[in-house]
């Protein structure tokens, strides 16, 4: 594996800010660009939100970030994945490798250090081709279309909804 995943920590603040600033143009069309947002993210970690950093194994550089958000346990055991990749690693396949590790961790039972989830969702704006390609590479199924789902860049944006359940992981033929 070229990458590992781990929880963010306060000492990531500077490299995180640099990675987000470097990647602002690439991220900004689809997600908020918040270089100074790591502390807020750390403060919000809890039962409903778990963040993973994807780290380049050779250099320790930040490849990307994945939030597992809106986690609901009980009879749902569901979470929604939101992610960004950072330059210079974007487009090298490392983000996909890291996301596979995140999905693995999400579906692993809690007693084995996982999140114990059963279903994961990815919601993507219809013309975000790179994100849709990533969802499909991970084996996510297209479930439907959700109008006016998220308030992004000043407007309520439509999203395509992709999902994966634990029974479908790992995808066959990978
Ligand atoms: C969506 C996003 C996270 C995808 O990340 P990425 O950096 O493209 O991810 P990867 O590098 O794993 O993508 C694989 C790409 O690298 C290429 N690649 C290069 N070397 C590779 C290798 N050794 N192995 C696998 N793929 C490789 C693949 O061909 C693929 O390119 P393609 O999509 O043009 O076919 C990224 O584009 C991003 O941050 N976008 C802005 C924010 C965003 O849209 N977030 C999601 C909102 S829903």
Q: What does this 3D model show about the protein?
A:
This protein has 174 residues and is α+β, with helices and mostly antiparallel strands. It has one domain (3-168): Gcn5-related N-acetyltransferase (GNAT) (Aminopeptidase, 3-Layer(aba) Sandwich). It contains five helices and seven strands, in the order βαααβββαβαββ. The chain has helices spanning 13-22, 24-28, 38-43, 94-107, 129-137; strands at 3-6, 50-56, 62-72, 78-85, 119-124, 141-152, 155-165. Strands 1-2-3-4-5-7-6 form a seven-stranded mixed beta sheet, with helices on both faces. The longest helix has 14 residues, at 94-107.
CATH superfamily: Gcn5-related N-acetyltransferase (GNAT)
Bound molecules: coenzyme A
**Arithmetic mean pLDDT:** 97
Helix content: 25-40%
Please state the structural category.
alpha+beta
Query: What is the overall silhouette?
Result: globular
Would you identify the regions where 5 or more consecutive residues have pLDDT less than 50?
Answer: none
Number of domains in the coordinates? Answer: 1
Strand line-up of the largest beta sheet? 1-2-3-4-5-7-6
Which sheet architecture does the biggest sheet show? 7 strands, mixed
Any idea of the CATH topology? Aminopeptidase
Number of separate strands: 7
Radius of gyration: 15 Å
CATH architecture: 3-Layer(aba) Sandwich
By CATH reckoning, the class would read Alpha Beta
SS summary, helix count: 5
Straight-line N-to-C gap: 15 Å
Which series of helices and strands comes N to C? EHHHEEEHEHEE
Strand content: 25-35%
GO molecular function: protein N-terminal-serine acetyltransferase activity; protein-N-terminal-alanine acetyltransferase activity
Protein name: Ribosomal-protein-alanine N-acetyltransferase
Domain N-acetyltransferase: 3-167
GO cellular component, one term: cytoplasm
